[in-house]
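Dear colleagues,

For the upcoming journal club I promised to circulate an example of a predicted protein-ligand complex. I picked one with iron/sulfur cluster because it came up in last month's discussion. The inputs are reproduced below in full, followed by the predicted structure.
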Amino acid sequence: MTQEKEIVIRRLKTAKDLGKFMADYYYELDDAAKSGKKKIAWCTSVGPAEILRGMGFLTYFPETHSAMLGTTRMASDLIPKANAMGYSPDICSYLTADIGAFLEGVTPLSRAFPGIESVPKPDVLVYNTNQCRDVQDWFAWYADRFDVPLVGVETYRNVPEVTPAHITSIARQMENIVEPLEKVAGRKLDMDEFKNAVALSRECSDLWEKCLAAAAAVPSPLTFFDGTTLMGPAVVGRGTRKAIDAYNLLLEELEERIAQGIGAIENERYRLYWEGMPIWGRLSMHSKLFAGLNANVIASTYCSSWIFTALDPADPFESMARAYTELFIVRSDDYKEEYIKNKLEFFKCDGIIYHDAKTCPNNTNCRYGMPQRLEKRTGIPSLVINGDLNDLRMLSDEQTKTNVEAFIEQLEERK
Ligand code: SF4
């Protein structure tokens, strides 16, 4: 009788602290929504959160809620509710799952955080289209539903090099949202609070960058699958001191692991890069699949999306304009290829996994020949997994398993 191999994945102790950070964050929002003590702004995940903090808003990020709909595997049943309203099954499954959940009156927040019954009602919605147009449509639906203002920044796409003209245009748009936001906030933008939020965001970003860079150690103390949940404070808490405290603890644990030569998985033989979004409903399954093959997915473009090295409190609007326009997702394919090539070298990767996410072309970079071009340049092989961030009807677990196993065999032959 064959014996199943035991899969060893070492969980980080600080994951619990980061879990507490998220609980405190959602309870604070829930309290504000119920008591009306503070105004709430809904913000896109790479939206201008620092401006909102400079006016005392609490910020809620619907994409994080959608990712929870994915991890709890509630999304696939909810997406059709939004489809019935006219939102195509081919558009962002964050949008369709989130609107579906709202229409059904359900939220994973209730299960995770007892006492929370619904998402916090917005006083205003704020977007930046730097990631996609879907966020604008998504927020417009809620603005109409709640009868509250919608403001935003419309940005450039496929940018090869960020120029002063880009920065000026985006910075002016950011300045222009201040007045309508002040009307909702009932107070002026406090420049000191705003600059402080930019400084805290920058510190959070630098720490998060160091945490992710820890994966360059051999063996890596971190996996991509850990990163997708550990990044919570970088998304929802940037601009706050609490997020910095959380990442100081995480960094300390990662450095301890490096000093002791402890890897996140046992027997790290292959080191992989993940390009594209996670498949939220399969995080655990995929983490075990790769670890069981002695492969560690150590780094990704996705988790690095919340690194904003341009932020500078001395020049808050211009530096925010730069930080939120320099992002990978905004850039041209030439830029993206160079970026990934550098990451492969830095993290000493043996292969790349591209996730072709059916409903997010914006975070999918394997449809126009990039895997082939990068393989030619670097000699590093790649595998494309067909799936989706939230809609589990778009993937075949059997096919994924077979393809990953064959890919690892291919890597073994090159060792
Ligand atoms: S980037 Fe993709 S997943 Fe994110 S909101 Fe836009 S379409 Fe949805």
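Two points we might discuss: The CA atoms of residues 153 and 173 lie 6 Å apart. The mean pLDDT is 97.

See you all on Thursday,
B. R.
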